[in-house]
Amino acid sequence: MRPLLRLRPVLRSRWIAYAASLISVALVTIVIGLVPGRVHIANISMLYLVAVLTVAVGFGSGPAVVASVAAFLAFDFFFVEPVHTLTVSDPEEWVALLLFLLTAIVTGHVAASQRRRAWEAEQREREAIVLYDVVRLMSEPDLGQALDAVAARLRQELQLAAVSIEIAQGEGHDVIRAIAGDPEALWLARASTVASSRLLKQGAAPTPIRRGAPGRWIGVVPPRPPSTARTIVSNRLYLVPVTVEGQRAGVIVLVRAPDGPGFTAADNRLLSAVAAQVGIALERLRLRREATEAEILRRTDELKSALLSAVSHDLRTPLATISAAADSLLQQDVDWSPEERAAFARDIAEEARRLGRLVDNLLDLSRIEGGKLHPQKAWHDLRGLVEEVLDRLRPVTARHRVTVEMPDDLPPLLLDYVEIAQVLSNLIENATKHTPPGTEITISGARIDGEVQVEVADRGPGLPPEALGRVFEPFYRLDGQGAQSRGSGLGLAVAKGLVEAHGGRMWAENRPGGGARFIFTLPIGEPGGASSSATEVAP
């Protein structure tokens, strides 16, 4: 009974086509009979040929052949002497009738072939458009939203009651389900849970009902009866598996509308192609996810190696200096002069400050990476901040010429004093490490388009072109750095993170004539406005 139900729409459409072919011949016969006087036999054949061609274009070759035979019989019965009989007295009329039949069949076949080719071209164009839409939709980063859009597109294209797409996210992961359809039909989509779960977990491929079908129709009664019992009988589910590298990764559940037709060969090709494209997109997402995870692991290994290198070098060296200076001071058998004792004390103090800066940078970097950086802003004068930082770094900049170029009209800035002081300290210390003694370091500022731009420039060797975009990476150090330019590779990364936390930007450039400059910007707030919610106002 159920196969007959599925064939009803097809049989109904075929009977309509053959009935239309007979009706067209009957109409032509009536028109010829209403014409007064005798119509020439050649004109009669032309009129019947028009009817045959019309049937061929509209319904195909089968109805066209039926129309040709019916036209041949009507021609002979009504218009060839003796009329109202199927006998022909004149041999020439036999030739004319046979030529007419042959011509009608050939022209009908040619017209039907052209119709079929045009229809196939339309179907190919339709498939290309749908596949383009599916590929475009599956390129979305959010898999759930992409599947929702694909389900809606399939429902619209195939005129279905509902579509459900279920994708398994690997072992131990939940199943992503996307649905599109009217509430009544969605009961059937939910009722497919058992069948689709078996398909996902056990990998059981549905047996096609015919050659070339990508899936199989199954009968399902909803867990809760919908509004009409007819829906339970006539609605059917069609399961199309989605595979990735030969493994079941998901299933497309299609719910046919009540009394809706089955799928044509073109529909089956389209469903196969859509399922393949969804599988390709899933594989692409998996490869992208694996590549991202591999990149994270690689960067983690690099950071771990760099951190171990930094700890082993940048902690061990100052600790060794402090230990050596302290041991020297503790020697009882050596009479150190006051100048020598002061030098040992300075070494201990300088290396202790260096250790403190390294620890501060490590802590700041951890806060930046963890998104726990919350600047405590207040209104401050930039020139005063620069002068205080330089005063604190006097031992570091003792062997360089430092110039400050700050215009008098710079407005107060809303900033975290400690953090921006750390930014300037890191940039100035970086300049002293990588430039020869006696060279000039320039600190300048300017107001440009609603923000203040601060620049720390030196006259050292500059930066290689490939390093301009990497100097702000944590633990990045230039190749070939010697002991004179030792560093942990943290200062610039921390400085950039602190500036960005203030809503600014930082970048590096090479100077004409030699040297490098590091530039950062800070936004100019409006006192009393939205940005004036500072914790305090500095004196």
How many strands? 13
Structural domain count: 3
What would the principal axes of the Cα set say about the shape? rod-shaped
Helix/strand order, N-terminal first? HHHHHEEHHEHEEHHEHEEHEEHEEE
Q: What oligomeric state is this?
A: single chain
Unreliably modeled segments = 1-12, 199-212, 218-235, 481-485, 528-539
How much of the sequence is in beta strands? Answer: 5-15%
Textual characterization of the structure:
It is rod-shaped, with a radius of gyration of 43 Å. The chain is of the alpha+beta class. It contains 13 helices and 13 strands. Helices cover 55% and strands 14% of the residues. Strand 4 and strand 5 form a beta hairpin. The longest helix has 66 residues. It has a five-stranded antiparallel sheet with strand order 2-1-5-4-3, sandwiched between helices. The chain has three domains: 127 residues, no CATH class; 147 residues, GAF domain (Beta-Lactamase, 2-Layer Sandwich); 165 residues, Histidine kinase-like ATPase, C-terminal domain (Heat Shock Protein 90, 2-Layer Sandwich), CATH 3.30.565.10.
